[in-house]
Amino acid sequence: MSQFYISDTRSPSPGSRSASDSDEDLTTLPFAQPLQRSDFLAPDFTPSTYLSTLSNRHQTLEDLRSELRSRSQLLSRELLDLVNANYADFLTLGNSLRGGDEKVEGVRVGLLGFRKEVAGLEQLVRGREEEVDALVRQRRETRKKIEVGRRLVEFEERVKACEEGVAVGEGDGSESSESEEDDDDDEDGFGTSVARLRSNVVQYRLAKEVVKGLEEHPFVLAQAHRLSKVRSTILLDLSTALQQAKKAGDAGSGRVMQLMKIYADMEESGEAIKVLKTLKK
C-alpha cells in the first residue's frame, strides 16, 4: 500500500537492518493531524490544489481517503440538519402565505380609496389656487384703479392751481414772497414778475407730468381744454414779458435770459424764437 511519509536522508549500510527494524521506524513517524475545516472554506479552494498540499503527510492513501470520506459525510449530515431545522419554518411560511390574495386585495382597495381622496384634495387645492389667483389679480387691478384715481385727483388740483396762477391780475405788486426768490428781478417798468411766470410754468409742467401715460383717459381728455387754455395764457404772458424786456435794451438783457430759460423749462423754446423774430421785423 502506498504511503505519504518523509524518508530518512541517511543511507544505512547493507544488511544493517532487519524487517522488524523497518516496522519500528514506521511506527515512530509523527501522527497525521486531522484535516482542518477551515481549509475547505477558502474562497479559492480546489480539490487538486488542496491534495497537492498533502504530499508531506505521514499517512497512507487509504487513511486519507477515509478521512476525506468522513469529512464529506459530516458535511452532508450538517446540511441535512440545517434543512430539517428550517423546514418547520418553511412550512409555517407557506401556511402564512395562504389567503394572501385577500390581504393584497384589501390593501389594493385601501390604496385606491386613498388615491381617490388625494385626487379630491388635489382638485380642492387647485380650486383654492385659482380662487387666490383671481383675488390677487383683482387686488392688482383695484390698486391700479386707485392709483389712476389718485393721479386724476392730483391732476385736477394742479390744473386748478394753474388756472388760479394765470388768473392773478397782471401788474399785481403784492408778490413779496416771489420777489425774494429772484432778488435780481427789477419789477419797475415790467409786467408780471419772472418769479410768477416761473411758478406758473412749474405748475403747468407738474399737471402734465402727473397724467403721463393717461393722456387718453376720458377725464384727462375732458380737461384738455382747460390745460390748453392755461398753456395759451402762460405763453401770452411770456411773450409780453419778453417783448418788454427786449425793448428795454441793455436794462432788460438779464430779464431776457431768464425768460428764455423759462421757455426752455416749458419746452416751448420755439415760441420764444417766434417772438424774437417778430420783434426784429
TrEMBL record:
<keyword id="KW-0333">Golgi apparatus</keyword>
<feature type="region of interest" description="Disordered">
    <location>
        <begin position="166"/>
        <end position="191"/>
    </location>
</feature>
<dbReference type="GO" id="GO:0007030">
    <property type="term" value="P:Golgi organization"/>
</dbReference>
<comment type="similarity">
    <text>Belongs to the COG2 family.</text>
</comment>
<dbReference type="GO" id="GO:0015031">
    <property type="term" value="P:protein transport"/>
</dbReference>
<feature type="region of interest" description="Disordered">
    <location>
        <begin position="1"/>
        <end position="25"/>
    </location>
</feature>
<dbReference type="GO" id="GO:0017119">
    <property type="term" value="C:Golgi transport complex"/>
</dbReference>
<protein>
    <recommendedName>
        <fullName>Conserved oligomeric Golgi complex subunit 2</fullName>
    </recommendedName>
</protein>
<feature type="domain" description="Conserved oligomeric Golgi complex subunit 2 N-terminal">
    <location>
        <begin position="34"/>
        <end position="108"/>
    </location>
</feature>
<feature type="compositionally biased region" description="Low complexity">
    <location>
        <begin position="10"/>
        <end position="19"/>
    </location>
</feature>
<keyword id="KW-0653">Protein transport</keyword>
<keyword id="KW-0472">Membrane</keyword>
<feature type="compositionally biased region" description="Acidic residues">
    <location>
        <begin position="172"/>
        <end position="189"/>
    </location>
</feature>
<dbReference type="InterPro" id="IPR009316">
    <property type="entry name" value="COG2"/>
</dbReference>
<dbReference type="InterPro" id="IPR024602">
    <property type="entry name" value="COG_su2_N"/>
</dbReference>
<dbReference type="GO" id="GO:0006891">
    <property type="term" value="P:intra-Golgi vesicle-mediated transport"/>
</dbReference>
<dbReference type="Pfam" id="PF06148">
    <property type="entry name" value="COG2_N"/>
</dbReference>
<dbReference type="GO" id="GO:0000139">
    <property type="term" value="C:Golgi membrane"/>
</dbReference>
<keyword id="KW-0813">Transport</keyword>
